[in-house]
Amino acid sequence: MTALVNPGLAAELARSDEFNADxxxxxxxxxxxxxxxxxxEVRKLFRYVLLGMExxxxxxxxxxxxxxxxxxxxxxxxxxxxxxxxxxxxRHHIVRSRFGLGEG
Amino acid sequence: xxxxxxxVIGILGDNLRLRKSVLPLPAEVATKWTEGLGLPxxxxxxxxxxxxxxxxxxxxxxxxxxxxxxxxWMGKYTGLGRKVxxxxxxxxxxxxxxxxxxxxxDQVPINVVHLLRKAEVKFGALFEDDLYSGALAYDLGxxxxxxxxxxxxxxxxxxxxxxxVITIDPHTTTMLRSVYPKILKGYDIEVKSYLxxxxxxxxxxxxxxxxxxxxxxxxxxxxxxxxxxxVVDEPRELLAAAGVTIRDPEYTGRQTWCxxxxxxxxxxxxxxxxxxxxxxxxxxxxxxxxxxxxxCFVNLSNAAGSTMRFKDISQYLREAYAS
Lengths: 104, 323
Hints:
The complex is a heterodimer.
Chain A lengths: L8 H5 L15 H5 L8 H10 L2 H6 L1 H6 L5 H5 L6 H15 L7
Chain B lengths: L4 H15 L7 H4 L14 E4 L3 H14 L7 H7 L2 H6 L2 H5 L4 H20 L5 E2 L9 H5 L3 H17 L4 E4 L2 H14 L6 E4 H7 L15 E4 L3 H6 L4 H9 L3 E3 L20 H16 L4 E4 L2 H11 L4 E4 H9 L2
Parallel strand pairs in B: 1-2, 1-3, 3-4, 5-6, 5-7, 7-8
Helix pairs in contact in B: 1-4, 3-7, 7-16, 11-13, 14-15
């Protein structure tokens, strides 16, 4: 199995100081408490970003857009990860790079 | 036809860019609630709907219109073609809620007008310049489209001499209060929800007499109010002082459980499944529920059917404080 890696992906996504996928310690509280259950596993998405696995992120489009942005995970995250804004940042990336949308 | 997430998001973005709303409404519909209220145009303080309550019956109308066509309402809408939508407002043909359906949602800003007047707040309205905030497009990552739209909203505030905006729903509140300052240079508008304004004015304490209501209700906190904007205590204080017994469900306050509404435009089956879970939690506490967001109201009402009764908090507050 091979994967195309973009080592600059996390830096490209970090448009502001709010993007902090690297603060995730993969503890799983977010997955345990998410109202959407297994449909959304943000810690896996953040791991793909940190590893530069851009294709994997794009392949998870439904997962990225199934997030409610309700911040239940963020409220309970022990690492202070800005989960909702991180997910929104992934959406912005997908909207532009996969769907060719987003120009004003 | 399978759902195409990109086309759905494209249509929502096109609508916001071309028609100033993700689901454009005729101006006379968006401003219907102002009729007969004698609201001044503009001024330093305005009540701002962001069209949220007015939009809900149109979204519902669209859902009904495409029920037989498959899974997602926006997916079916997409089937008519994003290209066609750029030239023709497709939603105007598909979503035709009745006057009675629209009146249910128009009643909320009307309630708020009476409450603010009871609190002796001086305010106006922006009528056709009361634009959608761009909340859904922002959530979907259409940042550039939202920045352009936010400039139009800010320009409308400036045009009418607005310094303070009083909002009704949580999504408009967080866009105008927490998002716009991050994406617009020089944005200097003070934003408060009417619940915060009423609490500040002494409603909910001993500052204003209330007609005491009876009964108990289960509180469904909005995720956006509770976790994005920290509005948790105000609705409780206002209702409690009105004599309503408040029951809390399993997940409540800052730990509230989402209604599912935010994903309805893309994945309605997931939204409905989540709403059903929330209804079960609420029903375990009481059969009458209070909401403070139009998306929560419609999603939970639809999921509950006849098993529960939902009322917007403004309805209780008007009965208690401004009837």
